[in-house]
Amino acid sequence: MKIAILSPFYPYRGGLAQLNARLYTELSKNNEVKAFTFTTLYPNFLFPGKTQYVTENDPVTVIDSRRVLSSINPFSYIKTAREINKYAPDLLIIPYWMSFLAPAYGSVCLFVNKRTKVVSLVHNAISHERTLIEKPLAKFFFNRCDAFIVMSDPVRKDLLTLKKNAVVLLQPHPIYDHYAERFDKETACNELGVMADKKNLLFFGLIRDYKGLDLLIEAMAYLDDSYQLIIAGESYGSFDKYTGLINNSPLKDNIKVFEQYIPDNMVTTLFSAADVLALPYRSATQSGVVALAYQLELPMIATNVGALGSTVNHSGTGLVVSEPTASDLAQGIKSFFATDDAGLEQYKENLKKEKKRLSWENFTRSIESFFSQL
What span, in angstroms and rounded, lies between the C-alpha atoms of 297 and 317? Predict the structure, then answer.
C-alpha cells in the first residue's frame, strides 16, 4: 500500500512528533510511506511553550519529510494537496488533536484526489480546553475523512457525536519503546539531585490546567515528611500559580521541580527515581504518559476520569482514586504505599503484560488490517 502521513515530524519535537515517527517507521516495513509536515505549525505568538523545535541536545528520530503546510496560509493548503496528489497515495493519514488545525486539514482534504482514502488518527475529538467554535471546526475536517482510528472509548464517543456514521477503529495507544530501561533509584536520584530515601511521586508531562497538578501539590499537605513530589514537564501557560502553591505547602522542601521540556535522555532517569507515577487529571481521554509508564514499568495512581481510571483499573497497573480532589489523591497515595510486597509484584507483572499487549507490532497489524477493508 502507498501511504502518506500529514502531521508534525522532525524538526518539531514532543510526544506527537515521536509517535508519528514511530508510526512512519512501522508502516514502512510493509508499505511505501511518505511524510508531509509543516512549515508553520503554530505561529510563535500562539505557542504556549518555549519552543516547538528540536534543540541540538534532543536525541530524536529524524524522518525525511516534505515541509509544505502552513496552518495559517491558505495558499499552502492547495500546494500541500498538490504535493500529496503528485505522490498519489492509496491512503492519507492525518493525526488530529486540536481544532486550530481543522481548517488547514479540512481544506487540504478538499483538494486531495478522491481516489485517496483519508484516515484521521484522532487523539482528541473534542479538546480538554474547548471553545465555542471547536465543534464546527472539527466537523469541517471530520466530514472530509473516510475513516478514523481512536485510542480510547471516550474519544470514540466524542467523535460519534460529531460524525454519527463514522467508520471507526478503536485501538489502544501503543507504548513508547525507544527509552532505555529503568535503573536503580538511588543512582537516578543522585543524578537529579533529589532525595533517594523518600517515597517518590512523579508528575510527568506537559503542565496544563486539566492535568490537576495543583491538586497533587495540595495533596502533599495531607502527607508526612516521608513523601517527595517530583514535577517534570514544561508548563503551557504561567507556572506562577504552582509556585505559589508549592511555597505555601508544609512539604515545600520535598517538592522538586524540573519545569522544562524533558529530553529523551532524562526521561528514564526521572522514572527510575520514582516509586509511582501520579496522574491527578480533572479530565482525560487517553494519555501518552500512561503508555510511557507501561514501557518503563512504573505503577500509577490515577483519578477516575475519562478512560484514564478504567484503563489503569482494568489493567491492574496501579491504584485509582474516586474523585480528582487533593484529599482523595492523598488517601490514594497512602493506600498505594501501604500495599504489601505481593500487591506491588502484581502491579509489576501486569505492567509487563500491558507492555507486551500494546506493542507497536500489534498496533500496526490492527490498523493495516483496518486500512485493507476501506
Answer: 9
Cα torsion through 108, 109, 110, 112, rounded to 10: 90
Residues 21/5, Cβ–Cβ less than 8 Å: no
Q: Which three cell numbers stand for residue 91?
A: 491512503
CB atoms within 10 A of CB 307: 21
Could you tell me whether strands 227-232 and 300-303 are parallel, antiparallel, or unpaired per DSSP bridges? unpaired
pLDDT digits (tens, 9 = 90+) for 62-96: 889 999 999 999 999 999 999 999 999 999 999 99
Tens of pLDDT along 163-217? Answer: 999 999 999 989 877 788 899 999 999 999 999 999 999 999 989 999 999 999 9
Burial class (CB in 10 A: 0-12, 13-18, 19+), 373: exposed
What is the C-alpha end-to-end distance of the chain, expressed in Å? 12
Domains (range + CATH), the chain:
2-174+359-372 (3.40.50.2000), 185-357 (3.40.50.2000)
The CA distances from residue 125 to 4, 137, 153, 295, in Å, are 21, 11, 11, 26
Query: At residue 324, what is the residue type?
Result: P
Q: Which among 194, 205, 276 is positioned nearest to 236, based on CA atoms?
A: 205
Q: Work out whether strand 300-303 and strand 318-321 pair parallel, antiparallel, or are unpaired.
A: parallel
Cα–Cα distance, 318 to 296 (Å, whole number):
14
168-170, strands of its sheet edge to edge: 65-70, 32-40, 2-6, 91-96, 117-122, 147-150, 168-170
Tell the residue number behind the cell numbers 517515597, with chain if given: 199
pTM: 0.82
Nearest to 80 by CA among 108, 120, 105: 108
Residue 130 CA neighbour count, 13 Å, CB half: 14
